[in-house]
């Protein structure tokens, strides 16, 4: 049985972890795309301690045509604006893809036109494009299962934090680390501000729970340094009074009545600070889930990797976790879990 062939799109902190996981799952890395490091060996770029014999390229199309990967593992930007062309390129070359970009978890409400375009493109070329990552189990399937224990849901409220330094310079810049409060206020009101991460998460939970979204609300506030705070991903020290990140509060109302709320804080952690993850569902009965000290960095990557067979097996189109089966552990090489699926010719 031939191994699954994978390409890495993005050669930063996240795909460094992914590259170490794939051999254990019988997945062969056959190509890599990066905005920089072109011509360098992927193993050296990812600091794996050995060469892989694969050169990083900026020409994704040429790599897909020559390497013919079964799936692309995308770890680049967080938002549709930076992901659309990447995923469209995958579809046009007949390559399945899964991304950990936060908005792409469930972008039907934040970027409906672009999502419809990607869905149609994927269907036309017979491939699956999927959103996933940390939110897959911990924020979609786990919470949907928790809500399934209730007789009546009135309100779902969640609080979560993440350390921006764990996710590289792109995320740190997205979280406005180092910005002044006045600059942040202008950015918050401008068209440059992308959608928050909370709405795709809440919309995905709603979809997994057969709830119909009727309205959304959004608040944002700065997280300000009280003392000089180093940011290792950007290589700077944030001065007192400047931003170490920000917190968003997203609210979703539904036709069926339940209200979903999520407070998400992405900032540079202080010494001793760890990830916070707590969700409370109010109704009959009240239920709560708390996951203290979850390794969000590594589980973001392990969940993307463990989704490889599900994405390849899924029907063509754009899907999120709510459109995939619950995550499961697979002990054998991933190729053994693949189903036969006819592919359409690339136009």
Automatic annotation (TrEMBL):
Gene3D superfamilies recorded: NAD(P)-binding Rossmann-like Domain (3.40.50.720)
Pfam families: DAP_DH_C
InterPro entries for the chain: DAP_DH_C, NAD(P)-bd_dom_sf
SUPFAM superfamilies: NAD(P)-binding Rossmann-fold domains
Residue stretches making up the 2,4-diaminopentanoate dehydrogenase C-terminal domain: 147-324
Protein's UniProt name: 4-hydroxy-tetrahydrodipicolinate reductase
Organism expressing this protein natively: Amycolatopsis saalfeldensis
